[in-house]
Amino acid sequence: MIKDISQSIEACAAHYGDQADAMREYLIEGQKRALALPNRGPLRFDQNGAIDPEILSAYSTYGFYVLEGALSPEEVSDLEHDLNEMRDNFPTEMGATVDAKGRPALGVGCKGMVLQWAKPLSDPLGGTALLNGRHQVKLFEPQAKQGSPQATPLYLAGSLQFSKACLRTYAHPGLLKLAEAINGQDFTPFHEGLFIKDAGLGAAVSWHQDGDTHWNSPDFDENSHGFNFMGQVYGSTAVNGVWVVPGSHKQNRIDIVKLVADAGSERLPDAVPLICNPGDVVINNRQMLHGSFANTGFETRVTVNFGFHRRSSVLNIEGAGLHADAAIFDEAFIKHRSRVIGLAIAARKAHFPDEQPYVYAPMANDNDQPIWNNEAFASLKNYNVMDLSI
């Protein structure tokens, strides 16, 4: 059952002044269109243990699929526990090096990108040259309530080094089986993080398509830039969630400025929101046009993001340099970054000993199999400086 968010819809619409009625209708109709699409249901397998072909077909058609209840209540509880512990260790404000208890703040001393902040209800990327200018238009920025903080957390990168629960979710055998079905047995990592959209504060993320490297490639297809899994800790709604344009992953670069101009507003008529309950996981093609409005509602969203690529998309390719320093991704680079998959599988096996673990083909014959312990977890520090960003 989908949660009733009528009060959040009203709160959101109220911020849009003379456009309130249009925004209210957009949110309500978008939810209806999303729930009517035939691309949601449990993670299913055929009699041979392979991913149900109907899931793969729907994902290919629409560019996303909502895997209902993919994460057990125990997993969601573990994620929420770790999330609370991490937030307790966040810097007291943007730029601070200690948390509210005077301890070194999360991420202090890390080399890679960690915690990103934004002005409440702002669109920090829209219409700027940041991230190679992929966010071509700026979304409406509502006025935050008086007394709101100067900045609010937006994104936590490299999450696997901070949360054992995130690491275990990364090794979910059903989800990795789906990654294999789409990207082949030798699939590679991409990047991991947490999107944070606090109620009444969460910033907007302007319409954009992910991916930078392969748009002009002669081999370009719908899977050239990989996908993200998006695990929902608290759920996702039309107000706080990501909106997507179904099927747009099969196009090349989209002129978003023209698209918005033709629509007459930032409310793209073909877009639908990702509607999820806690424990649902969305598989979302990175090439699909997507974005999210400022969270003026009453529900917080935290999304556990982790993505994967085809090996052919990253092998001997120069990285885009968005999530980590640009580098040439040769075999040795990819193998080193992929060790995280092995560590995650070992961590999950230790926590869920009765579950059949996923076997990651590129590491199956390694003599030096990962051993899970606290030392192994500590070895993940700064792992994300080698993210395979394309």
What does this structure look like?
This protein has an eight-stranded mixed sheet. Strands 6-11-8-9 form a four-stranded antiparallel sheet. The model has no long low-confidence stretch (mean pLDDT 96). It is built from eleven helices and twelve strands. It is 29% helix and 15% strand. The two termini are 37 Å apart. The protein is α+β, with helices and mostly antiparallel strands and 390 residues long. Helix 3 links the parallel strand 1 and strand 2 (64-67). Helix 1 (6-14) packs antiparallel against helix 2 and helix 4 crosses helix 6 (164-170).
Task: Briefly note the CATH topology name.
Answer: Jelly Rolls
Measured on Cα atoms, how large is the radius of gyration? 20 Å
Biggest sheet layout: 8 strands, mixed
Number of helices: 11
The name of the CATH superfamily reads q2cbj1_9rhob like domain
The percentage of residues in β strands lies in 5-15%
Strand order of the largest sheet: 1-2-10-7-12-5-4-3
Mean pLDDT: 96
In the CATH hierarchy, what is the architecture at level 2?
Answer: Sandwich
C-alpha end-to-end distance: 37 Å
Number of DSSP strands? 12
**Domains (count):** 1
Tell me the overall shape.
Answer: globular
Estimate the helix proportion, in percent.
25-40%
H and E string: HHEHEHEHEHHEEEEHEEEEHHH
Structural class of the secondary structure composition? alpha+beta
Low-confidence stretches: none
Task: Produce a short descriptive summary.
This protein has helices spanning 6-14, 20-36, 53-62, 73-88, 130-133, 164-170, 173-183, 256-263, 311-314, 331-351, 374-378; strands at 40-41, 64-67, 115-118, 152-157, 188-197, 205-208, 227-232, 243-244, 272-273, 281-285, 290-292, 301-309. The protein is an alpha+beta fold and 390 residues long.
